[in-house]
Every structure is written in C-alpha cells, then in structure tokens.
Amino acid sequence: MILVKEDIPLHTREFADEMLKETGHTAIGKGGKILATFIMKTFLDKNLLEDIKEEHRKYRNK
C-alpha cells in the first residue's frame, strides 16, 4: 500500500508524522479491513486454512 508520495524510510519521525495525516489514517483503516477479510476467509474456508498450513510446512522444511 502506498502511504506517502515520497520515499520516506519506515520507523522514522518523518514516517510517523505522515501517519498522523488523513492519508495515514485512511491507509491504516484499509489495512485493517484487508487483514480482517483475510482472517475471516481463512476462518470460514477450512480448505484454505489447510492449504496455507501445507505451504508453510513445505517452506519450513526446505
């Protein structure tokens, strides 16, 4: 997600200041909705959850 128009490094005072603006608030809200949607889809679709677990097992056993 693009939050700022400039290349501002994360975890800096400048980035924190940008997060206090309306665009920052909007981005945080949209991010929360994206996470909530992912959690609900994962919770409601057991096949999806099993697929995620299987992919994770494959990744961890490389």
Which features characterize this protein?
62 residues, mainly alpha, 3 helices, 73% helix, elongated
What does this structure look like?
It comes from Tissierella pigra. This is Amidohydrolase. Keywords: Hydrolase. GO terms for molecular function: hydrolase activity. This protein is mainly alpha-helical and 62 residues long. Helix content is 73%, strand content 0%. The chain is elongated.
Short description:
This is Amidohydrolase. By secondary structure, the protein is mainly α.
Topology of this protein?
Blueprint: H1 13-19, H2 22-44, H3 46-60
GO molecular function: hydrolase activity
Protein name: Amidohydrolase
Organism: Tissierella pigra
Helix-strand makeup class: mainly alpha
The shape is: elongated
Radius of gyration: 17 Å
**Main β sheet profile:** none
Output the number of helix runs. Answer: 3
**Average pLDDT across residues?**
90
Total number of beta strands: 0
Integer count of domains: 1
> Percentage of helical residues?
over 70%
What oligomeric state best describes the polypeptide chains here? single chain
Would you identify the regions where 5 or more consecutive residues have pLDDT less than 50?
none
N- and C-termini, Cα separation: 30 Å
Share in β-strands: under 5%
SSE pattern, N- to C-terminal = HHH
Protein name: Amidohydrolase
GO molecular function, one term: hydrolase activity
Keywords: Hydrolase
